[in-house]
Automatic annotation (TrEMBL):
Residue ranges annotated for the DUF641 domain, each copy included: 77-200
Coiled coil: 152-200
Alphabetically ordered keywords of this record: Coiled coil
Name assigned to this protein: Uncharacterized protein
Pfam families xref list: DUF641, GIL1_IRKI_C
InterPro entries: DUF641_pln, GIL1-like, GIL1_IRKI_C
GO biological process, one term: response to red or far red light
Domain GIL1/IRKI C-terminal: 400-457
Amino acid sequence: METVKPLDVASGKGKLRRTFAKVINIKKQTGVVPEGDKVEKVKKSQEKVKLGKDLAKKNAANLSESFDKLEEEYEKRLSMEALLAKLFATVSSIKSGYAQLQYAQSPYDPAGIQKADNLVVSELKTLSELKQSFLKKQFDPNPDRILVLAEIQELSSLLKTYEIMRKKQECQLKLKDSEIMFLKEKFEESMNQNKLMEKRLNQSGQLCNPLAHNLHHSALNPSHFVTYLHHTVKSIRGFVKLMVEQMKFAGWDIDMAADSIQPEVFYYKQDHKCFAFEHFVCKIMFEAFHLPYFSTESSSPQKKSKEMFFERFTELRSMKTKEYIASSPKSRFSWFCRAKYLQLIHPKMEQAFFGHMHQRNQISACEFPETSFCTAFVEMAKRVWLLHCLAFSFDPEASIFEVPKGCRFSEVYMKSLTEEAFLSPPEESSPESEPRVAFTVVPGFRIGKTSIQCEVYLSRSCQRRPIR
């Protein structure tokens, strides 16, 4: 029979203790607390969650209200912008309609006038409707669409307005072109009539003969000389004008050419530079005017008598220039024309004007060709020669004078060709700024005690700025 072993009480107690310890540790790790504390903490947690939810609901309500207000303000502003855009588009349409109405009146277009009138009335009604909408705050529910349509309407109206303006400008341009053509035709007609009249006067001898046919040497007085001097200067200026036109046609620099004749001169106007060329021509043509026959060639006292010079004046003034030269190629007058032409017209100038030297070779042989340039020169030379003969018909003979550069202006001996020289501002008036003689254009003459003023170009030494 087997013996019964006693239980190990001590080891059993140890196992139970270890089991309780594990359970307690697990509870600590999992947060399991006694029942009373657990209920209290759960209540606090629920209160916090409830408070957070209430706060979140409140914030969400506030945000929603703010968003609604912003959206409402944005919609109002967008609606107002759409209304203003439609307003401006309507005004542009009225402007376009009014432009169409004006355009249809000239030339008169009844259909166009009716169409433009209907457009203006329709747009005025639209303006009235927009006013009522604004007062009643009845805005369009789709402002984005209205903005786009208003912009399209405004651009279309502007395009129509510009198109009408273009048509008007084209009509005005055509009208101006017609006026220009008409004026050109009138100008050409007037020029042809002037040339025809001048040709007839030359043929009749009246243009070259400003003095009376029955004038006798005994009745000669300074007024006759002044009259013929006026016609001589007129002929010189006609030739200068033709010469400047030839320079421009040949491509010459007119400013440079004028400055080469009279350097460092202030011209008040661009057209005044023609006086430099007139000075050049007069200087050549009147050179040696104080000598009998423009030369130092000796002659007998009989040939130098006053009556003889007056007879030569009377003889030549009634004849055609070309015929006289052809009949007397070796006469003093023919020699004078030949010498003055070769002196006045440089070979380079003639080459530039005509592209050849044939005319110069002919004139060197005392044969003057039938060209407008040569004819103008011969007529000018004839008047200078006749003025010279008339000057030596006086007793004592008329003398010539000119004023040197830089002299003060004197109304007794000078005549100014520029009124601008006397129109200086008061603050610039001083003895140093007074107008001075830049150069003599046409020389003056003395006949006994009578002085005939020379024509001068005045300028101011303080004014050296370029022409505008």
